[in-house]
Amino acid sequence: MPSIDPSDAILRTTLELLAERGVHGLTVEGVAARSGVAKTTIYRRWRSKQDLALAALVDIADRQTQRPRDLGDTRSELLAFVMRLVRVLSSSLVGRVVHGLVSELDSDPELARTFREQVLARRTAELDHILERGVQRGEVRADARAGIAMDLLLGPIYYRLLLSGAPLTRQFAEEVVDSFLAAATKSPE
How confident is the model over 117-126, as pLDDT tens digits? Predict the structure, then answer.
């Protein structure tokens, strides 16, 4: 019978504990006790509970990352992209993990760098693919690429999630996408 990779057991247990207790209630000791893996083994790979939570988030992101489907028009594709994020952030463990980690990103530059490289970079690549298709179709200006688009499309979502507490709804997602497209389809003056 094949043995379970300790990393898999650690990440699976981390997700279970995150679901039960959130990031603030997560401890390396708790992960070690429930997973049956020694604390020293965990600390060899992850330096803190925040790193462990981020690793679990990256593991989920790896399983959820998908190449955006061609839906025939840029608005539909952007709306699907934004709605997937809205669903994940507002009603899943991933949203709770992100919410718990955000406060740590400001005080931990290494954690912030890893989050940008391993989580945000995946979303940026997906968005860039959607926008490239939009440019090819003539639906989006060639200079409307993923850098600022990410800020304009996702910034309002994170603002609602983390600051205002206003609901993340489909109507809101449509308003965000339509506002972005209004700017991304006009000729610069």
Answer: 888 888 888 8
- 59-80 burial string, b = 16+ CB within 10 Å, else e? bbbeeeeeebeeeeebbebbbb
Contact of 10 with 31, CB cutoff 8 Å: yes
Q: How many whole angstroms separate alpha carbon 57 and alpha carbon 69?
A: 23
**Over the stretch 27-58, which tens digit does the pLDDT of each residue have?**
999 999 999 999 999 999 998 888 898 888 88
Q: For 72-102, what is each residue's pLDDT tens digit?
A: 999 999 999 999 888 888 777 777 777 777 7
Which ranges in the chain are annotated with CATH 1.10.10.60? 6-52
Residue range 65-185 in CATH 2.40.160.10? no
Stretch(es) of the chain classified as CATH 1.10.357.10: 65-185
Element (H, E) at 165: none
Both tokens assigned to 126: 């997906």
- Looking at the domain covering 6-52, what would its CATH class be? mainly alpha
